[in-house]
Amino acid sequence: MGNELLFAGTGAALLETDSGDFGFMIKLLKEFKIFGVKLNITSTHISLVIVTITLLIVGCLVGRIVKRVNASDTPGTVQNIAELVVEMLDNMVNGIMGKEARRFVNYISTLFVFVLLCNISGLFGLRAPTADYGVTLPLGIITFCMIHYCGLKKNKMKHLTDMCHPVVLTPINIIGELAVPISLSLRLFGNIMSGTVLMGLIYMLPRYVTVGIPAAAHVYFDIFSGCIQAYVICMLTMVYITDKISD
Amino acid sequence: MDNITGQEFINAMSAIGAGIAMIAGVGPGIGQGYAAGQAAAAVGRNPGAKSDITSTMLLGQAVAETTGLYGLAVAIILMFVKPFK
């Protein structure tokens, strides 16, 4: 298997190279063909499945516990934590979107929790799924579709004619619109990928150096950077959408 | 040293190119530092608006980071994907 740049859809942007065994590249686990299209099962898919199943299980358990509580009871630990998280996400969306928040709070909260768990999964020995351009580009494209769906719904044709307002600047405006999903996905990918590469390089150091140092690096690259990036992608998604739907 | 193959030369040049591409990290460093400094000054003037200032600063820094990440993407592709063979 040579090293190659694969397009999104096969789910892998960078595959492990022939030369040298880097711990931080995407590992090819299984390869098969369907209708002549080569599909690869990589470590990204495994991490994504693990992250999704974890989210599902936690969500189901918390949902069951919260559903069973009466309004007059004293809230338990699980309910308190769940309320804290939901309230934090609600405040975040409300602060940016104002009265339109109700329509988007579900998507933004899901995005935040998913990206956050993906980013910190490097801490649990997985290869972070967001360090794969095939995962972050769809997130950018979803945002792009939402921006233009909301813009068309709110402003009808004016949304399109706004783009060529000074006629000379039409190409630049179109490029500016197309750059949104690319910069959004590249920002998440680049931050997490650089963290993954640096962690891999730190683990390649001689044995006696890798005592204690990786722990501090994990705190910075996985937890701090992961939280910041999850927050940033949600904020930017909200800002772009609010820009189109506000009066 | 006098039997370097063409592929080895290309690999060496790719490594140098990746290093040069990361000079792009200078700009975001200056920009983010300036944003953080201004935010610190703003919090000093108006401590009540700390959360608003922090979120605005993070948003601005994230946007300022984009050009650096383009350089990083070029460097990673040169180092690990090896487009020239």
Description of the structure:
The complex is a heterodimer of chains A (247) and B (85). Chain A is mainly alpha-helical and 247 residues long. Chain A has a domain at 81-245. Chain A is built from seven helices and two strands; from the N terminus they run ββααααααα. Chain A has helices at residues 43-68, 77-97, 101-120, 133-155, 158-161, 170-203, 213-245, and strands spanning 28-34, 37-42. A two-stranded antiparallel ribbon of chain A has the order 1-2. Chain A is globular, with a radius of gyration of 21 Å. Chain B is mainly alpha-helical. Chain B has one domain (6-80): F1F0 ATP synthase subunit C (F1FO ATP Synthase). The mean pLDDT of chain B is 89.
What is the total number of structural domains of chain B?
A: 1
Gyration radius of chain B (Cα, Å) is: 20 Å
Figure out the total of helices of chain A: 7
Termini separation of chain B (Å)? 21 Å
Count of β-strands of chain A:
2
Largest sheet descriptor of chain A? 2 strands, antiparallel
Q: CATH topology of chain B, what is it called? A: F1FO ATP Synthase
What fraction strand of chain B?
Answer: under 5%
Top CATH class of chain B: Mainly Alpha
* Mean of residue pLDDT values of chain B: 89
- Classify the secondary structure makeup of chain A into a structural class: mainly alpha
Total number of β-strand segments of chain B? 0
Radius of gyration computed on alpha carbons of chain A: 21 Å
Q: List segments of chain B where confidence is low: pLDDT < 50 over at least 5 consecutive residues.
A: none
Q: What is the molecular shape of chain A?
A: globular
> Strand-and-helix sequence of chain A, N→C?
EEHHHHHHH
